[in-house]
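Two quick folds needed for the group meeting slides. Do the first one here.
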Amino acid sequence: MRAIILGILSSLFFASTFVLNRSMEISGGSWIWGSSLRFIFMVPFLIALVLWRKNFKPLWKELMSNPKPWLIWSFVGFVLFYAPITFAAAYGPAWLIAGTWQFTIIAGVLLTPLFKSTNGESRMKIPIKPLAISSIIFAGIVLIQVRHFESVSLSIMLLGCIPVLIACFAYPLGNRKMMAVCNDQLDTFQRVLGMTLASLPYWFILSLYGFVSIGLPSQNQVIQSFLVAICSGVIATMLFFFATNLVRHSPEHLAAVEATISIQIIFVILGEVFLLNSSWPDSIALTGIVIIIFGIALHSYYSVKKPQLTTVAKPQKVNV
């Protein structure tokens, strides 16, 4: 239950990504700077946090001794996750990006066979019950989006959805692979900093391309990117990675934590209503919200439910 609560809190802070990214695009900002600045701004805060915990040396030693998996899975978990999301924000509204992103709750479950069990001898199987519950939640998300489908063109739907679907698989894949690489040798704070540092070469290359093609970012975009870095990059990422780390050995509980991502759509709707002057959701969308809450409650119930113990009858003495 603790991991579920942390996952919901991370969704609250992560929702700022979709609202602020859309706000940046509306005000003329570029997705290139929106994505790269977030991770560049994250670095000093994460370094200060890890230094304060006196854990930087072990992390640096691990990065230098084994850089290849860090460079690969940081690219997958951070670059292939966030660059497509900010790119999609240039073409689709926040509700479309945030709604499509919720497919992560199913993508994470479908990735289960790519990982081995704790004994390292067999592949994990897709947990059917969490997949079914996550599908219920996704149905609620679709209901929330129904009223918007007629208002956007096919090209906007494709440019807004396909990049986000790539991100849906990249984020949990990179996170889980790095948990396997670290193998309890590094804590969550070290892992997030390590992945951020390993992703910096890619962000610097993207920033260089942005400088050459469109010039420097505006002051407004720098400020909003800084807010995204704090709320989403540092707080939300830490909470989510810590929550998944608590249940990393259980595919069922891991699916439940990843399903808390669905709560983001509710926070995004509220953010669009109050900050971007969008209209309130209609009755169909409200039904979808109720279904999402019901699905999260189901995940929480099965996460804390203790397995029933089978009682074995004691052998009776036989007098000979």
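Then this one, please, same format:
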Amino acid sequence: MLPDPAAPGLHDVMPAVLAGLGAGPTVPGLALPEARATGLLLIDGLGHAQLREHARDAPFLAGLPEHGPLPVGFPSSTPISLTTLGTGLPPGAHGTLGVRFRVDDLLLDALTWTADGKDARDQLVPEVVQPHPTAFERAVAQEIGATVVSHRAFRQSGLTRSALRGADYRGVGALGDLAAEMIEALRRPGRQLVYGYHADLDQLGHLHGPGSLAWRFQLRQLDHLVEQLVTELPADALLAVTADHGMVTVDRTHDADTDPDLLGGVALVGGDPRARLVYARPGAADDVLDAWRGVLGDDAWIRSGAEAVEQDWFGPLDHALRARVPDAVVALRGTAAVVRTEEEPLLSRLPGQHGSLTPEERYVPLLVADGR
């Protein structure tokens, strides 16, 4: 259920990239080739299990040298993993503990950086919520060019400011300009760190399920994208490909908005359908734990916040962040989910979900190719 804490994980990828650029110590168990310039492409939603199961749809990707699979942090969802990747720290250290988690008594949505449906960037300043320097800031401090290539809509998002700040941001809208911007940045003189992000595989996995025909067609497009990038790499450059999580198709749900047994004593329900963070009203924590365990039974692993911290579910915890830890940590098993049909109506209807501790959700590939 829980990866070996001594083994490499997603939080080691950027330190390994920087080491290959001559800007940091070697990461034990994850040595990447040295290069003048390194590109790192993150394909949202491409779990290691899904890539291996559908290798015939992505023969180029599946044929690249594998330096994984690597476990991502818990919960296995995008804002947690992007912050883990960008800072080189596990969730317990960087403090982004869920898709929605409590900060200063507010439930912060780390994807949209909103609280109570309102923009929270002024009230919950991203650089304060996540104060650790990013890999891009560390690269620039060592005179390495740093570029982030991602959708233009994310340029000033709270998540970008929290996890990816410090780089030259190049906004794009499609596969063509994503590839072009990454290659142009890798061709600049001197040492270069170039990060690219693509979201559509995750979107189609949510809408249709991982392994669906639409998902497989998108995977084929991404296979061609990666082949193009490798073909155009400068001879002294490297391309690494990874992901933020995998995905499962859910077929049974519990509703935290309508089930009275799941509502009692609860102040806030955060997280996402496969990894719920439950904050209890004062004095109700034990009752909430008992009720959720009684309702979910074998559909979930459930720990108190103290148990989850003790067992390193979030990785080693910065105890200054202890107030962000919920009273109940709920990781769904099998193909079950805890939805919120009133607060999250769209998300509650989606067949593809992620966030829990299963290998299908938690392990991602790390594939590497050079320009030679």
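Slide caption for protein two: Residues 10-248+358-370 form a domain with the Alkaline Phosphatase, subunit A fold (CATH 3.40.720.10).
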